[in-house]
C-alpha cells in the first residue's frame, strides 16, 4: 500500500559505525529472574551466532545480567567480534542474590572504574563500544562525579562512547553539561510512554534513544484495547503485532534504536524485518494516540 511515513534502516551511535535500527537485547539469555547462567548454554551461543548471521549489528548487555554470565556468553559465542558489530554494556548496579530486592545502585568512582575494566575483560575487548551508567539512583557519589568518572574512562581509551540508563530528564541535561552522551535507554512502548520526555530531549540533542520493553503492548488493563487497535493494521501488512509495535517505534522518531529480547531465532528474524514495514500517517496516528506521552 502507498504510505506517507517511513523509517531509515541504520543509525550511528556516537563515534561508532552505523548499525541496524533493530538491535538485540541479550538480557533473556540468563537464568530465571536474570540470575545465573542461561539453562542451555550451547543453545544461547548458537542463537547469538545466528543473530549476527541474520543481520544483528547491535547487542545490548550489562554486567548485572547473571551477574556477569551474559557478557561471558557473548564473548564465547562471538569473539573475535566482526568489525561491524557494536556491543553495549552497563555498570552501576549490584545484586546480592536471586531476589530482585537485592538489586542496588552503586556510583562511586572506584566501583565504576572496576566495573568497566571487568566488563572489558569479560567481553575480551581493549575498549567497550558503548558503556552505560546503569542507574542515576546511586547515592554513594554525586551524579556529576559518576559522569566525570565515565568521561575519564573514555579519555583513557577504555570506552568509546557513554550512555545513560534509568535516569531523569534533569540528569540527562546535567550529564551533557559535562561530556558527550551518545545514547539513552528508557521505558517507552505502545502502552507505556514513561520515557517520552527523554525521547524528546534526545531528539533535540541528536542522541540515540534505545527504548526497552519496546514491543510490550500494555498491562492487563490496556492490553485488550491496544491489541484491538493493532490487529487490523497487522492484517493489512501481513505482520505480527510485535512487528507492528517495532515498526511504530522506528517511525516514531529517527533517533530510536529498539532492543527487543528473545530466545527464539524465528522471533529475532521477525524483529529484524520490522524496518521493512512502512506505516501510513493514519496508522501512526492510531497507534500513537493509544497512550499519553509522558
From TrEMBL:
Which Pfam families has this protein been placed in?
Answer: Aldo_ket_red
Q: Where is the NADP-dependent oxidoreductase domain?
A: 22-289
Q: Which Gene3D superfamilies match?
A: NADP-dependent oxidoreductase domain (3.20.20.100)
GO molecular function, one example?
Answer: oxidoreductase activity
Q: Which UniProt keywords apply?
A: Oxidoreductase
Q: Which residues form a coiled coil?
A: none
Cellular component, GO, one term: cytoplasm
Check the record and name the PANTHER family matching this protein. AFLATOXIN B1 ALDEHYDE REDUCTASE (PTHR43625), ALDO-KETO REDUCTASE YAKC [NADP(+)] (PTHR43625:SF40)
Please state what the protein is called. Answer: Oxidoreductase
Q: Which organism is it from?
A: Nonomuraea terrae
Amino acid at each position: 500500500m502507498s504510505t506517507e511515513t517511513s523509517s531509515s534502516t541504520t543509525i550511528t551511535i556516537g563515534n561508532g559505525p552505523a548499525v541496524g535500527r533493530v538491535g538485540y537485547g541479550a538480557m533473556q539469555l540468563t537464568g530465571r529472574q536474570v540470575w545465573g547462567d542461561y539453562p542451555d548454554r550451547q543453545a544461547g551461543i548458537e542463537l547469538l551466532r545466528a543473530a549476527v548471521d541474520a543481520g544483528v549489528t547491535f547487542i545490548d548487555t550489562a554486567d548485572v545480567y547473571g551477574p556477569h554470565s551474559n557478557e561471558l556468553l557473548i564473548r564465547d559465542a562471538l569473539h573475535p567480534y566482526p568489525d561491524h558489530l557494536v556491543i553495549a554494556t552497563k555498570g552501576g548496579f549490584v545484586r546480592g542474590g536471586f531476589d530482585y530486592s537485592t538489586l542496588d545502585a552503586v556510583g562511586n568512582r572506584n566501583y565504576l572504574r572496576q566495573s568497566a575494566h571487568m566488563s572489558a575483560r569479560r567481553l575480551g575487548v581493549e575498549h567497550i563500544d558503548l558503556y552505560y551508567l546503569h542507574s542515576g539512583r546511586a547515592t554513594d557519589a554525586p551524579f556529576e562525579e559518576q559522569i566525570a568518572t565515565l568521561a575519564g574512562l573514555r579519555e583513557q581509551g577504555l570506552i568509546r562512547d557513554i550512555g545513560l540508563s534509568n535516569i531523569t530528564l534533569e540528569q540527562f541535561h546535567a550529564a551533557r553539561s559535562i561530556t558527550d552522551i551518545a545514547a539513552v535507554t528508557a521505558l517507552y512502548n505502545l502502552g507505556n510512554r514513561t520515557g517520552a520526555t527523554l525521547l524528546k530531549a534526545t531528539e533535540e540533542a541528536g542522541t540515540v534513544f534505545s527504548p526497552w520493553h519496546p514491543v510490550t503492548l500494555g498491562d492487563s488493563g490496556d492490553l485488550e484495547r491496544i491489541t484491538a487497535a493493532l490487529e487490523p493494521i497487522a492484517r493489512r501488512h501481513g505482520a505480527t503485532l510485535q512487528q507492528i509495535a517495532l515498526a511504530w517505534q522506528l517511525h516514531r522518531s529517527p533517533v530510536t534504536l529498539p532492543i527487543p529480547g528473545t530466545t527464539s531465532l524465528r522471533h529475532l528474524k521477525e524483529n529484524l524485518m520490522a524496518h521493512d514495514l512502512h506505516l501510513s500517517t493514519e496508522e501512526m496516528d492510531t497507534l500513537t494516540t493509544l497512550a499519553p506521552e509522558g
